[in-house]
Amino acid sequence: MLSATVGSMRSHLYEADHEDFRASVRTFVEKEIAPFHAQWEKDSIVPRELWTAGGEQGFLGIDQDEQYGGGGVRDFRYQAVLAEEMARVGASGVGFGLHNDVVSPYLRDLATEEQKQRWVPGFCSGETITAIAMTEPGTGSDLQGITTTARRDGDGWVLNGSKTFITNGINADLVIVVARTNPDAPASKGTSLLVVERGMAGFERGRNLEKVGLKAQDTAELFFTDVRVPGENLLGTVDRGFLHLMENLPQERLSIAIGAVAAVETVLAQTVEYVTSRTAFGRPVGSFQNSRFVLAELQTEATVARVFVDECIRQLDAGTLTAVDAAQAKWWCSDLQNRVADRCLQLHGGYGYMDEYPVSKAWRDARVQSIYGGTNEIMKEIIGRSMGL
Ligand SMILES: Cc1cc2nc3c(=O)[nH]c(=O)nc-3n(C[C@H](O)[C@H](O)[C@H](O)COP(=O)(O)OP(=O)(O)OC[C@H]3O[C@@H](n4cnc5c(N)ncnc54)[C@H](O)[C@@H]3O)c2cc1C
């Protein structure tokens, strides 16, 4: 059984209610996800029924108001527990994190009453799966360069363009699309968030993209050709889409850091178990000084990461998490996750390269963490700028 904690640094973050919640998530994950995930990796997607099963358990829309079917709790620790328990079984294909941690605040904070009534109940029940589409084939880091446009047409818009690398892209019923609504203004002042729904004429999905890792996650291309988006599907303020993105990106980045630390803890626990049982030269490989030093170094870094991320979670809940702190958490923890996966794979020897050992999947799944949510180079730009550089 893997430990849910590293060292003694953790005990202050979670309370009894969170641990009760953890127990129910763990049961769900072990019963409904772990036995099937390998098949979903082959399918390159998770079934929609998993979403409704998660919705029934109250795992979706934890922070949405109860009147719309949400959990009515604004406490990111619950979402962190969910991410941790998914990471512990390597459930990297289940897009609940994107739905809960990334999309949910847009609906919670920007949707009108009428929009909430239309979208949030399905969001919480798992019948409405969501995605957010910023990245385009020609631009990712430089969001100012997006070319998807929405031209005014009566009380709505006509949307044209394409997006790529969109998480939940195949399953999504509701996609928040970042589009230029004022071509004469810079993107920061002429971009809006438009909600495109499954079935709208001119909205097509492209390939479910084949990837290095996150094999069970549907990551897709989306195409918009003269899609008529009604005025009531504008999310937030017209031409202020960038502002809305900036407000929400710190939570997305912290969510990545939380997943990274949970993955680090899991891989470390699995590796300690492996090096204790595998022998070479008549002794456990974990007893070589190199193995002990490598694992001691990684354990120390894992503890440091955990303490920092826990503090970021507290700050997020207090409304004081800065974009710079979130950027620090995102780059450092995802970088650590990659280092830990790589060094732990090495300690497994040839078995580490075999799919039957979870460390190989952990290594593949880790790779993207320094890329999406803003690359780690962009995180360092944000931090550097805050230092006046
Ligand atoms: C599995 C996966 C899921 C994703 N999910 C989503 C999603 O749901 N929604 C969504 O909108 N996007 C999603 N993305 C896209 C992701 O956010 C982008 O890939 C990422 O922002 C980088 O953009 P890019 O791929 O265009 O790389 P580019 O911007 O072309 O960057 C290429 C390289 O140049 C570097 N670079 C760029 N600008 C600078 C700079 N100013 N200084 C230093 N270096 C720089 C980058 O760090 C990178 O190393 C996903 C991507 C993947 C792989």
From TrEMBL:
Residue ranges occupied by any Acyl-CoA dehydrogenase/oxidase C-terminal domain in the UniProt entry: 239-387
Cofactor field: FAD
Boundaries of every Acyl-CoA oxidase/dehydrogenase middle domain copy: 131-227
Keyword vocabulary terms for this entry: FAD, Flavoprotein, Oxidoreductase
Residues in Acyl-CoA dehydrogenase/oxidase N-terminal domain copies: 16-127
MF (Gene Ontology): acyl-CoA dehydrogenase activity; flavin adenine dinucleotide binding
S-adenosyl-L-methionine recorded as keyword: no
Keyword check for Flavoprotein: yes
Sequence similarity: Belongs to the acyl-CoA dehydrogenase family.
Protein name: Acyl-CoA dehydrogenase
